[in-house]
Design a protein that fits this description.
It is a single chain. The protein is mainly alpha-helical. It is 53% helix and 7% strand. The chain is built from five helices and four strands. The strands form two sheets. The chain has a two-stranded antiparallel ribbon. Strands 2-3 form a two-stranded antiparallel ribbon. Helix 1 packs across helix 4 and helix 3 packs across helix 4.
Amino acid sequence: MRAPLAALLLWLPVAALAQGATSDLFRAMDANGDGRISEAEYVAYMSQGFYRLDRNHDGILERDELPGGRGKPVTLKEWQDNLRREFHQLDSNHDGYLSPQELAQPPR
């Protein structure tokens, strides 16, 4: 259950890309403005979803904090490990950075 939920939660911000927000999201993620997104920038930006859901700020998303109120608890470390895996799946040319085109691809 954890993997599908994590995939859904990871996909939600990227789904905005389909709405024509590619450049806005890319600029928001590109914290240093170098025109590419590093793993650290991706993880930092995408971790904001965890922080918003973690209402009691204990570093663990409990069942009542998860969308739909279902699933096993997820720690911040687990969340960020999933983000790192997602980053490497999106980095199709394996250069360690995401381009706007790579960011717009759906997760594999």
